[in-house]
Amino acid sequence: MRTDLPWREGRSGAVGGPLRPSAPESYETVEGGLAPWDTWRSHEALQQPNYPDESALKDVTALLRQQPPLVFAGEVDDLRAELAAAGRGEAFVLTGGDCAETFREATADHLRRKIQTLLQMAVVLTYGASMPVVKIGRIAGQYAKPRSADMETRDGVTLPSYRGDAVNSVEFTKEARIPDPQRLVDTYHHAASTLNLIRAFTKGGYADLRLVHHWNRGFTANPAYARYESLAAEIHRAVKFMEAAGADFDSLRSVDLYSSHEALLLEYESAMTRIDSRSGQAYNTSGHFLWVGERTRNLDGAHIELLSSVRNPVGVKLGPTTSVNEMLSLMDRLNPQGEEGRLTFITRMGAERIREVLPPLLEAAKADGRPVTWTTDPMHGNTITSSTGYKTRRFETIMDEVRGFFDAHYSVGTVPGGIHVELTGDDVTEVIGGAEELDDDSLRQRYETVVDPRLNHQQSLEMAFQVAELLR
Ligand code: TRP
Ligand code: MN
Q: Disordered: where is this region (predicted)?
């Protein structure tokens, strides 16, 4: 077995700590009995599936506890350091990917297009920010969804709601909707093969800055995007200059792309947690970055307890009704010592309210002094129903929330650290607006998401150009 694993080479960007030794860590699992990170079991657990067969679930989690980790402690530590830099304003976070990944779309083509889109956005943002971009996918594990109702009724038939491919199937039949613990094993394997592809794409020459820039040339050649031409031309000159000067280093050829998902399914997340033998600390090895959503971030709940017991950098979504006290208590629970990079708040306020509700939270965090990395999720506060009956979002409203996020931070003197968006690399029609002016009718053409509407490939790049303009 090789010990010089390529993804352990350390970061290629300018931020973060020293290179680590390249031998993979070893991990201990806890046989029988309760693990130190099992404390969540005595807390209220919202949004969990009702598995009809408890013993099948036990078999599955026992199996998962024996599987190799999907991500490694050294990588997780690297990401924490990069998020710390973003919190200080020395890097910018780009998080993007599906609302809900599906097993069906875990194919090489879909994943490649998604990774391509993220990399293309990253080039534009790196130039715009003149800073390293921390690249994180909602990928390789984003298979579980919280739902507003346990049951769904269609034409008089009531069945359990779809909770993501990790739990049940989206198809509206009795069999498909019964939560099946075997799907947790499938989740593990899909995440593993997705990560394998990510590691190949990001380290194998495919992520070469010059190649990614070349793809972006294709985008700006489209007359619809003429307004981005001058920024694109600047980037082009910078790349040409680098080439002319003979600048050619390893970091131009590879990137670190981290994985993240909502830590929703407590049994899965805790079965994937391991003690890192080097530090003796617990790491959730199912993804580098884990977040908890608006619906499950109750202070005394099992999800916050779960995140409080692992070393990974963690995130919490904050909606428009978040109080200062709640926010400070989340800091107490998740980052009592005020470690940089440990805690990211992902705000999802809605474009209409962000300028009013975000500043008081920023003021309070600033007064508290413990560091927070702030990112904006401009998607979830801006969901509407189109006149044609589709759940959608308007590109211009999404961008308005991003601008409101920057305005709020600049007015308070805190750092707008990044964006967190739902996107796909495919040419779907789920979000209206953008330079291609998708309208209510065009939603019919290619609406494929199983949960929330995503930016398509072009809209994602357009967002990157607009955010780059904001960052200059
Ligand atoms: N390694 C650097 C980085 O990750 C530069 C880089 C190489 C890059 N390929 C890239 C940046 C693709 C963005 C996209 O920032
Ligand atoms: Mn969503």
A: 1-26
